[in-house]
Amino acid sequence: MTGNQAPARGPVRDASVVVARDADGMVALLSADFPRHDGEHLFLPGGRREDGETPEECARRELREEAGITADRWRPLGAYAITLDSTARVHLYEARGLTLGPQEPTATETDFTLSWWQMADALAAAGNGRFLLPAGPLALFLADWL
């Protein structure tokens, strides 16, 4: 290993994150307790891509599973590298034309709580450190700005 090269790792998978906005502009946020990080935090629906999925297919699946939402209109908001040492990317989307249904959580998602926030309040929560991971705040900012 030389320079800034990282040690070889196993296969990496892209991820997708979704800003779902209803007809009134309200944003779907999820929350759950993260004991290792001192309690409840907010996040957007999203997760790792499964084999054979496109980034948008991943976004659609994660939105349906985690939030029980399907959408008619999708807008890409960009993508970025997960880390400098990884080729995996996080793909950001905005979803509109929403239809609500039951959540379809996996075994690790059963404690996810869905709530609806004004965009300004969601952005303020991001600024106040209520999100653990950067993809949610970035996606919110881009959806509001673009």
Key features?
23% helix, 146 residues, 7 strands, alpha+beta, 3 helices, disordered N terminus, three-stranded antiparallel beta sheet
Molecular structure report:
The protein is built from three helices and seven strands. The N and C termini lie far apart (41 Å). Helix 2 crosses helix 3. It has a four-stranded mixed β-sheet with strand order 4-1-6-5, sandwiched between helices. A three-stranded antiparallel β-sheet has the order 3-2-7. A hairpin with a 7-residue loop joins strand 5 and strand 6 (89-100). By secondary structure, it is α+β, with helices and mostly antiparallel strands. It has helices at 55-67, 119-127, 135-145, and strands spanning 15-20, 27-34, 39-43, 46-48, 69-81, 89-100, 113-117.
Measured as a percent range, the helix fraction is 10-25%
Strand segment count = 7
- Report the average pLDDT across residues: 91
Which structural class do the helices and strands define?
Answer: alpha+beta
- Beta-strand content: 35-45%
Rg over C-alpha atoms, rounded to the nearest angstrom: 16 Å
**Number of DSSP helical runs:** 3
Overall geometry? globular
The ordered H/E elements are EEEEHEEEHH
Q: What's the arrangement of strands in the largest beta sheet?
A: 4-1-6-5
